[in-house]
Amino acid sequence: MLKRVHFKSSWLPYALVAPQILITLVFFMWPAGQSIYQSFLIEDAFGLTTEFVWFENYEYLLTDSLYFDTVYRTLFFSLTVAFFSLSIALLLAGFTDRIVRGAMFYRTMLIWPYAVAPVIAGALWVFMFDPTLGILAWLLDGFGWNWNHKLNGGEAMALVIGAATWKQISYNFLFLIAAMQSIPRSLIEAAALDGAGPFHRFWTIIFPLIMPTGFFLLVVNIVYAFFETFGIIHVVTGGGPAKATEILVYKAYSDGFIGLDLGGSAAQSTILMVGVILITIIQFRYVERQMEYV
Amino acid sequence: MIENRPLGAFFSHAVITTGLLIIAFPVWITFVAATHDSVRVSQVPFPLIPGDQFFVNLKAMFSSPEESIGGIPVGMMMLNSLIMALMIASGKIVISLLSAFAIVYFQFRFRMFFFWMIFVTLMLPVEVRILPTFEVVADLGMLNSYWGLTIPLIASATATFMFRQTFLAVPDELLEAARIDGAGPMRFFFDILLPISRTSIAALFVILFIFGWNQYLWPLLITTDKSMYTVVMGIKSLLETAEGDPAWHIIMMTALMAMLPPVVVVLAMQNLFVKGLTETDK
Questions:
Q1: Cβ contacts of B127 on chain A, cutoff 8 Å
Q2: Is A274 among the domain residues?
Q3: pLDDT tens digits, residue range B230-244?
Q4: By the CB < 8 Å criterion, does A24 face chain B?
């Protein structure tokens, strides 16, 4: 942690950490504290008086079936995005790993969606599925499917899942292909000599050995779907129709900034914060265990 | 290769190529939309072959304000995005380098306390503290400014950790040698640590530039003045104002412009990008 040989200085180290610590205090600690404090307050409709109500906001949330609908919806959304983006990335990485020539070219062609902003990804997908002129909506129409994500909640959910998955495949692909290429070739050659075919080798050697990376990616993907997909949902559906695509972060945002229910929004933020802390702990405990594998 | 199976190799190439094409399809459609005029774009079925209006649309997007977002030329928004991305990336790198240097090379009171404080920022993504952070920025009078857009985002636990790892791998002998030659801490930092960490800095810069360019929620809250809009959030206002008669050819051209810089950065600096991504996230 600390270098065996190090400097001793009375003021310099404090000056060096000062910018980071100052920003952390002003823009992280203080707002987080405020958020917790506000979650104990109820403001009247005109913002004139505030009342300290202890856990009333939480009680209200935790007895509200609409809030739990949002929780289940968020879980469904995150797990679906994680499942599809991991499976597709695994498929592509598995085949790329088998290729001798051109693997670098394929990697190049697969990583760029990572750089596309979630909102832009949303805009592209909304355009393809636009009910009046989108090309895919038109194609579906040819099959007798009258696609309209502005009215149909299930279709709206499918659309945001599609856009969120599309953007995440490259990230998963990069980590999976790196994990696969770090497997010693001799292991795979030995299995091939014993007569194991490509699919057999994949499931009995490659797949178990990339499980640690897979678990790490699962956590990262869930966090991504929870927080970073805000832009996609904001531009594609705005949480609608009839809240069919409203996930937790979106609800905290719209209750606070649009519904002006400050206490309720702060309580939701605090619950989310607890969630992030739990996920981070899981991730770090796991990363330590992964170190032992290597 | 382990065995020679032409059919298997062909099958692998076929699967990956299909995957590539499906993944590239949304961007192809965007490009095609940007090459047609408004009449052709609003006809069904949508064309799959590019038209010849690309440069006409490009010119329209950059010049005529009435066709772009609420009268803000796209060039202005791209400049804002660029300034924001560069400020976030360099700000994060500078403050993380300094704090990692302090934590690794100095013995001082509250060292571990500061370290954990930086660590905790990992657990507080902007999405869970939107309202109060917005209030702080408003109280400091930083709304509609580049400072308000960037400073609240530049604390970085991941960058600090990454530099900490880099510094811990630097041999102690270098510091001993520097001290014998009479170098003070800052001299050591600038003349030895910085040059050694060059690759890490570059790799991190690629990741952070993309992170900064793609910011959405934060600029959406902080900028109400149209001259401060960034191009990524501009897409949303374009889609909103165009509710009745969407100028899809201009919208899609703007989307292309919004994704071009980060995609070019990733492709041009692919190896640095991969290095940065795998080292910061693990």
A1: 227, 230, 249, 252-253, 272
A2: yes
A3: 888 888 877 776 555
A4: yes
**Could you tell me the CA-to-CA distances from A80 to A72, A76, A86, A87 in Å, in that order?**
12, 6, 10, 11
CB distance from A86 to chain B under 8 Å? no
- Read off the pLDDT of residues B186-226 as tens digits, 9 standing for 90 and up: 889 999 899 988 888 998 899 899 999 998 888 988 888 87
Whether B105 and B215 map to the same domain: the answer is yes
Which letter does DSSP use for residue B169 in this model?
Answer: T
Mutate to test the interface with A, among B38, B108, B187 (most CBs of A within 10 A): B108
pTM of the model: 0.88
A46, part of any domain: no
Task: Please count the helices (runs of H) and the strands (runs of E) in chain B.
Answer: 16, 0
For A52, phi then psi, to 5°, come to -85, 120
Of A12, A38, A273, the CB nearest to B124: A273
> What whole-number distance in Å separates Cα of residue A83 and Cα of residue A120?
22
Instruction: State the Cα–Cα distance between residues A263 and A253, nearest whole angstrom.
Output: 12
Same domain (yes/no): B125, B254: yes
Whether B226 and B94 map to the same domain: the answer is yes
Question: Which residues span the domain enclosing A181?
Answer: 65-293
ipTM for the predicted complex: 0.85
Q: Do residues B79 and B52 both lie within one domain?
A: no
Q: How many CA atoms lie within 13 A of A249 on its CB side?
A: 26
Question: pLDDT tens across A241-284, in order?
Answer: 888 888 888 888 888 888 777 788 888 888 888 888 888 787 77
CATH number reported for the structural domain that contains residue B269 in this entry: 1.10.3720.10
| Span A34-82, pLDDT tens digits | 888 888 887 766 666 777 777 878 888 888 888 888 899 999 999 999 9
Closest by Cα among B112, B64, B71, B62 to B256: B62
Of B45, B67, B89, the residue that ends a domain is B67
The continuous run of DSSP H or E covering B186 comes out as helix B185-188
